[in-house]
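As promised in the previous annual report, we have extended the structural survey to additional targets. Below is the entry for NAD kinase.
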Amino acid sequence: MTLRIAFMASEAPVAQTARAALIGRYGNVAPRDADVIVALGGDGYMLRTMHATQALSVPVYGMNRGTIGFLMNDYSETDLIERLGAAEAEVINPLSMRAMDQAGEEHHALAINEVSLLRAGPQAAKLKITVDGRVRLSELVCDGALLATPAGSTAYNYSAHGPILPIGADVLALTAIAAFRPRRWRGALLPKTARVRFDVLEADKRPVMADADSISIRDIDWVEIRSEPAISHRILFDPGHGLEERLISEQFT
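The corresponding structure token record, generated without further manual editing, is:
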């Protein structure tokens, strides 16, 4: 049986050139007709591809034709069928974000990496954090805070000094960004089933924006976040180079 592949690429010339070369060698089908989707670009494009194809239940195999490739495999034109046949799958559930802005409009978005809240003015943000209906931090003064999945724990979360999470840990990382008060609070590890709510205090004076995988909402009043088990993303990796291995290796670099 011939493997049906849909090749998708970022707008970068190097990615478009690679797509043309691969289509010439292996053919191409529409994503809805594919057995596997091959995404060519960097991690940002990989995330966009996963969001765009999440309703198709088709695994995505990324090859690095961008600047960052944590979610990507090395690029090669000659042995793709063999690599796809041997690839190992990692399953990731996204975060579901529900946010209310100051105009009273409700927004919804999904995030594979993280949902982050960021100050949108000259003054620090003030946030109240509630977990599963219980107030855990009545006031966090900070530049922001984020809730990250294991897949996103090596991205913004790690840069904010949050922990790297193994894929199978079934936990989420709640991490402060430049916390001013409590100054030494660096965040918490929460069960994957937790429902986290951020309320923006003094929202008129200290505006805050919410970002879910680069989907941004300005001037928010509150945000509620939970894992979405009904949606599963399957990412394919070459043997020995899966996301679990990359998460472990990242901690020793």
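The chain has a mean pLDDT of 92. The CA atoms of residues 5 and 27 lie 7 Å apart. These points will be discussed at the next consortium meeting with the crystallography subgroup.
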